[in-house]
């Protein structure tokens, strides 16, 4: 990449199968710049500048808005804006929104997009939130608050839609006033949060969650941190019974701030992550989670060339098979990287 980035965002762009990299933090501070990786050439090119610098934001392409990318929130003092960013031209327009960072974004039907939780404030006054905002396509586009709130405030959680035809979004874990084992559902039909009776087997945050479509119809929750340890555990949420189960198989190491990418073959690739030991900060280990026949077996995969955490991983598909683009993050020395690796599946 042209610049070092961690806690940036990477978004697959449908028009040209490129990957848009936005914001993040480097040695010079928080970035407003964007760049694209072009698989056809294997090169990066600068695209444009966001309205403000951002990290810990979200970035999602919206087909309903001619392929514009909604870049929302982030940590640069208090960011009260979202950008509608054209990934082909670099042009942007700005929408005002309630400030939040370290939140999640989930694309819903209609189509709309949901922002959940995160942090609000600055310095010692920063606080986790239990609120949600819906982005509505209209003239002009705008954000609307969900009428009720989650039971727990949370940031660094996950929010996963339970399938393209489902009305439910599963919100798991995170950190509020403490590490959380609670979960909630957001119901699109009622536009309400609903507490989930089932709890995680452990408190956790900085984990990943990947929805596995039918016939599996489950969410795979991997790793994270519980306030004391880096977790190597795999937890499965059943979208029918609305229950959590810890599977027997574990990852090759505990990790947080890693990535989990659902591959075309139904397996899940786990890459890198933070694991502080006496000799290192970042792990270069990877695992493939085999989900065949509703079994969840963790298989060690080839290592990254460089250990990294707070990176991104984006699936690229072609006639030659799947490739995962792994970009940026921090390494063992906690130095921010501008390097990327291609992981051939």
TrEMBL record:
InterPro entries, alphabetically?
A: Kelch-typ_b-propeller, Kelch_1
Q: Which Gene3D superfamilies match?
A: Kelch-type beta propeller
Q: Which UniProt keywords apply?
A: Kelch repeat, Membrane, Transmembrane, Transmembrane helix
Tell me where the transmembrane regions lie.
Answer: 107-126
Superkingdom classification of source? Eukaryota
Please provide an example of a Pfam family that matches this protein in its UniProt record: Kelch_KLHDC2_KLHL20_DRC7
Q: Would the keyword Transmembrane helix be found if you checked this record's keyword annotation?
A: yes
Which organism is the protein's source?
Rotaria magnacalcarata
Task: Provide the organism lineage as a comma list.
Answer: Eukaryota, Metazoa, Spiralia, Gnathifera, Rotifera
Q: What is this protein called?
A: Uncharacterized protein
